[in-house]
Amino acid sequence: MIGLTLVIAVCFAIQMVYASPVMGDVLAGFVPRTSLFTNPDMLFLSLGIIGATVMPHNLYLHSSIIQTRKIGDTLTEKRQAIRLGTIDSTLALMFALFINASILILAAAAFYTTGQFEVAEIQEAHALLSPTLGVSFAATLFGIALLASGLNSTVTATLSGQIVMEGFIHLRLKPYIRRLITRGIAIVPAVIVTVMFGQSGTAKLLIASQVVLSLQLPFAIVPLVMFTANKQKMGGLPAPRWLTIICAVIAVVLIGLNLKLIFDVATGAVTI
């Protein structure tokens, strides 16, 4: 997974060099705007980015990484395991943030600044990327990055499914059966939508699925914040109070944004 992530990062980094985005505008884009609350479409896409970056099932996967380490019985050894797990998850999420941000930055620098406002889907971006940037391999790098991203997501989703099935509901299956079930649940709807609505329908399904991941995040984050703050459950190593407060505030903000999106969908302000 680290190798696939590095491939994605390198592909987008090379394209960024040719796109030459204005760094001041890039940094300004990370600052939340009031339009996030007033523009339903912007909120819809923003929550999709959050869902695609964090992904609730990966919270379980990152937590399980600590259990794969050889952990001693002393508090010092347990603290070291937690520290290493924190580094693992932080680096992984930062790479995910970079990749998701790179897609938006590349699209803005390559298409928006050149007046190509009609580019909205992956296949259009792939076809127009090379002539816009002026290098023939830009589209190839874009395709390689998407392929690596898809493989990475598939692997992490399958591993996360295994963690949930074995650790929470104690359901143990042979690996090939588990993969057939989990991948079938993921692929079959995508195939049906592709056949019925074509490529445009697939693109909408992709964005909608990321938004659904954001809607599911509170169900993973709230128990996570509560359990890690519990000294008894954490074996005497609970999260610091300041960290719990920060995480609780983030959870409340995310829940509020999700509720706002649900209200927008219910009132017809945004359509999925």
Sum this structure up briefly.
With 272 residues, this protein is mostly helical. The protein has helices at 2-19, 23-28, 35-38, 40-54, 56-67, 75-110, 122-133, 138-167, 175-228, 241-266.
Explain the overall architecture.
The protein has 272 residues and is mainly alpha-helical. It has one domain (2-266). It has helices at 2-19, 23-28, 35-38, 40-54, 56-67, 75-110, 122-133, 138-167, 175-228, 241-266. Helix 4 crosses helix 10 and helix 8 packs across helix 9. The radius of gyration is 20 Å and the shape is globular. The model has no long low-confidence stretch (mean pLDDT 82).
Biggest β-sheet strands, sense, barrel = none
Mean pLDDT across residues: 82
* Cα Rg: 20 Å
Query: Unreliable segments (pLDDT under 50, ≥5 consecutive)?
Result: none
Q: Which range best describes the helical content: under 10%, 10-25%, 25-40%, 40-55%, 55-70% or over 70%?
A: over 70%
Distinct helical segment count = 10
SS strand fraction: under 5%
Strand segment tally: 0
Anisotropy-based shape:
globular
**How far apart, in Å, are the first and last alpha carbons?**
31 Å
Count structural domains.
1
Oligomer: single chain
Q: Pairing-aware structural class of the strands and helices?
A: mainly alpha
Order of helices and strands: HHHHHHHHHH
